[in-house]
Specification:
four-stranded mixed β-sheet; 17 helices; single chain
Length: 529
């Protein structure tokens, strides 16, 4: 739904910034965008970056082989075309010959080979390396058993790249559109003497923008890359990313006074914004918040204990306290998820959430206490990301578990960077997790709960998700429903509520898009009218 809003005038301070950061071109309308980051970028090296802020910046500077949109279909990017072998294990990409680095040199297949070799080189310590273990010899290269030259990525010619997999990977195109899969110019990289991605003059990309400034306060300024293959189509004349600092006003207030062009708002911020004006909005109804468990840590290593949590999960008091943008749900896939334009729920069999049963919960707890140390019930930590009043809502359920199970959770509300780091490293006992289904691909959403420190380790689950990737229609819905039920039966994910997410733009701003799952805005084709 789109809401128009009168565009507020920029403040005097922002006008000064605009003069400093604009890319002034004779006869060209200036489209200068400002966006607030939730954290200061750490490292703009695509192969090393692990935090959201750095990945948001990298998306402006680099372009991968393909671009994957909200429909999940790959589109040409640095590669203009590709073929996939019959066994789905060999990908051959034809790179566009007008692809250029920001210094004007051509982007070649060797640049992608070097990028993948750096990604899997153990010395890089890349956080996303394991996501690419499906590439031939990747695991052995990453462990140091083989040299990087043994990796199943090679240049067939200057503009032809081959990637060989050990087995089909239905999500491989999506992985190719992440920061870790970006190219790397070997000669430039070597010339940075170990400082690649750590300063403005130590990074060179092949994307729509180049890094024009990286201030001490963390602010990043991007300007159009004149050598970008589609430079004539890029309408944004500058993009300023503002890092948080003590004297920075809230993102909400900066949006309302027109200082920033667009923002991803929490539900509470969105409600406050609607009371102060009108604006354009992108909504995503595909986010479900729920509780996941580190099953390598007591007491959640015990299935019986997790069953006790589900059987005693009385949400009645929490439900009464939820605001309008949060809706209690007992389903894992959100109601907005679709299959070929048809609501998933109208195609899928109903799933059964464990019934509220205090007697069964008590019996499960007794079984669990024979398996785990009773003291672990009092030392467990639950990590929650900052942004919404999640801790406040969870307190209603926490009181029930304290009373009925003797479970006392220490709740830690963390900023985005620390939360993501802790979640990835497994440094938690349980966590509040957001599953985003904005791509309307139910199998993709369910894959986030396959394996790892908090996912379902039952091979049956992985098999269901793998089959669902290549299925369609009713068959796809049935497989996903079976996977959902297995998550509930194994007490892997305890759904709390469905959340509506909001990306808002000041009136007059057009052409800007936002990927809710990655948190990455795209200002390339934005205009301010």
């Amino acid at each position: 739904m789109i809401f128009p809003r009168k565009f507020a005038a920029f403040t005097a301070a922002l006008l000064t910034c605009t003069l400093l950061f604009s890319s002034c071109r004779l006869g060209r309308v200036e489209n200068d965008f400002v966006f607030d980051l939730d954290a200061a970028p750490v490292n703009l090296d695509p192969q090393s970056a692990g935090d959201t802020a750095s990945k948001q910046a990298i998306a402006n500077l680099f372009e991968g082989l393909v671009s994957v949109g909200d429909d999940g279909e790959p589109q040409p990017a640095a590669a203009e075309s590709w073929t996939v072998s019959a066994d789905e294990c060999t990908y051959t990409f034809s790179l566009r010959e007008d692809g250029r680095w920001e210094d004007g040199s051509p982007v070649t297949a060797d640049d992608f080979v070097f990028g993948f070799q750096r990604l899997l080189d153990p010395d890089t310590n890349a956080p996303a390396a394991e996501d690419f273990y499906v590439i031939q010899n990747a695991s052995a290269v990453h462990s140091g058993e083989l040299e990087v030259s043994a990796l199943g990525v090679r240049a067939l010619s200057e503009y032809s790249l081959e990637i060989r997999l050990t087995e089909p990977d239905p999500y491989f195109f999506e992985k190719l559109d992440t920061a870790a899969a970006m190219p790397c110019h070997e000669e430039y990289f070597i010339g940075t003497n170990g400082r690649y991605g750590l300063a403005r003059d130590k990074i060179m990309g092949n994307g729509a923008f180049y890094l024009a400034g990286w201030a001490e306060n963390g602010n990043l300024t991007f300007r159009p890359n004149q050598y970008y293959h589609s430079a004539d189509e890029v309408t944004a004349t500058s993009v300023l990313y503002v890092a948080p600092r003590e004297d920075r006003a809230s993102t909400l207030s900066r949006f309302l006074d027109g200082t920033i062009s667009a923002a991803c708002l929490t539900g509470s911020e969105y409600l406050a914004a609607t009371e102060n004006g009108e604006f354009e909005i992108l909504e995503n109804d595909g986010a479900v918040w729920g509780m996941v468990f580190n099953t390598s840590s007591e007491p959640f290593s015990s299935l019986a204990f997790r069953q006790a949590l589900f059987q005693s999960a009385d949400f009645s008091s929490m439900e009464e306290a939820l605001p309008q943008y949060l809706t209690r749900t007992q389903e894992i896939l959100p109601s907005g998820t679709e299959i070929d334009g048809v609501p998933y729920r109208s195609l899928a069999p109903a799933v059964s959430f464990p019934a509220l049963d205090p007697d069964a919960a008590a019996a499960s707890l007794e079984t669990a206490l024979a398996e785990v140390d009773a003291d672990s019930l009092r030392g467990a930590r639950m990590i929650i990301p900052a942004g919404e009043e999640h801790a406040e809502y969870f307190a209603y359920l926490s009181q029930v578990w304290q009373r009925d199970l003797g479970l006392y959770l220490t709740v830690e509300t963390l900023d985005t960077a620390e939360y993501e780091s802790r979640l990835a490293s497994g440094d938690f006992e349980c966590a509040l997790l957001c599953l985003s289904g904005n791509e309307n691909r139910p199998a993709s959403m369910l894959s986030a709960l396959s394996g790892g420190s908090y996912g379902c380790t039952d091979p049956t689950y992985a098999g269901l998700v793998d089959r669902a990737v290549s299925a369609e229609g009713q068959e796809l819905a049935g497989l996903c429903a079976q996977a959902e039920q297995l998550l509930l039966d194994s007490c892997t994910f305890l759904p709390f509520y469905l959340q509506t997410e909001y990306f808002v733009m000041n009136a007059g701003v057009t052409g800007v898009s936002y990927h809710f799952q990655t948190g990455i805005p795209d200002f390339r084709f934005g205009e301010i009218k």
